[in-house]
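Section handout 9: paired folding examples.
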Amino acid sequence: MSRLLRAWRARVDRASIPELRGPGYRSRGRLSQADVARLTGVSEGWYRALETGAHRDFSDAFLLRVAAALHLNETETLTLFLGISGRRPPTDPPPTHTTLDPALLALLRHQAPHPAYLTDAAWNVVAANAPMAEWFPWVKGPRPNLMRWGLTSREAREQVLDWEESCARVYLAMLRVASCQDQGNTELQELLREVLAADAVCRRIWAEGYEVAEHHDGRRFRLRLPCHQGAEVLVTTQMFLPLQSPGLRFVIVTPLTP
């Protein structure tokens, strides 16, 4: 990490930084450790400790100021945080996806004949391919939401076999993790309140209060859907996180041979 910090500092031209212009300051050459300390509002010794690899409790705010002073890009800032603190830099809330990436939508369509869909952080279904709409027509309705459908609808109880164990407990375990992880997501918190207010079985499961799950990737579900004329179908789900669309989940439903 020390070598990277020195290299990043060496490539910055002092003349490009207005804060370092003026009487008493040299206007040419590369940044010194003292320059970076001035730009980040710390002592030269404190910044030197960072660059030499000394163990300190460097705050996120300080590391972000270092990243700005050294003109680091997003990947370099990530490397700085991981190398110094072992954690990722703080991020803004995921953006609201009013316009979906056309390439992502094309990929969704290309999953046919397998159902596939996109959800946001609160499990709103923001896009679905034709097979998904055929299997689960509710995705074409107003405000389609995976958790709301799976936990509160009579349809889900009829179509997902062994509903309480394979669906309700799994989905509530996912909500338990998400509600702790994203406490500032008011839509997610309201969804949880709505589910618990609507269903006594969900309230009972929630009150047990110990099952947790981050996702349903690889889970198996036994379904009996009208589009299959009532025949039982065993499926698994695979979930992917598109790096260019943070906050979205890309899920494919794949039939399995029993």
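Moving on to protein 2 of 2.
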Amino acid sequence: MSVLELKGITKRFGKFTAVDDVSFEIREGEVFGFIGPNGAGKSTTIRAIIGAISPTSGEVRIHGKPVAAQPDYRKHIAYVPGDVQLWPNLTGGEVIRFFMKLSGNDDTEKMDAMIREFRLDPKKKCKTYSKGNRQKVALISAFLSEADLLIFDEPTTGLDPLMERTFHHHVLAAKFEGKSILLSSHILSEVEKLADRMAIIREGRIIETGRFSELKHITRVHYRVRTPDDLSEVGRMEGVHEFRQEDGEAEFMVDADKVKEVLAVLKHFELDNIETLPPKLEDIFMRYYDAGSGAS
């Protein structure tokens, strides 16, 4: 079942097109990654979803119905931006309890547990908080909400690695509860760990959508080879990148569509060991943003 569906969302600011014909859907109980560099159109798309801006054209649907026909559709959404601003004279705990009351959640035991996990001092006023602590207040509030669609826009900005892991844990817990998560980020490894499917946005347009396994056709395979032979011939082959060899070990990347040709050449060498490393999301991403890739 589709929880969120975008149909041809376009947003223009004067002559500038920030988002161009963006379409995708997020299903129930799914983590959907939305990746691209800063300025690619991620935040503009999200602002159209939450109603902060009106799209120039296209339609946003929640649970199969246009949001225009659902005046209260925002009750389904909890949104955390990359730079959270809070009421300066309220404490973090007061802000969290306020949002819990709005969503109808009175589970203070769960609230206390989450505050401990995120290592937040809830008695301090928000004006004293660092960026990371403001982020924690918003994340805790979102995870405690009754919303069935959680939208995170660069959510781990300002968090240390330990808190990032805590965030990842609660994303997966929310997914287990049947909630849907839109995770917008330029941190590719974060999306790779959490997302069931993803969309790559470039200059306001979606250029690929699918599961990571379905995107391998645009990636490269990383090889590590132990051999006494000189593999420079392999390094000169079409589709081979970042070749280097020293002390009897060679490493290189191979375009997915050139793997068969490279392996056919490798079998003529004396190989002590060959290791294939799984393709990374970074490889997919860089293929599209490499100026020489020809992607559009």
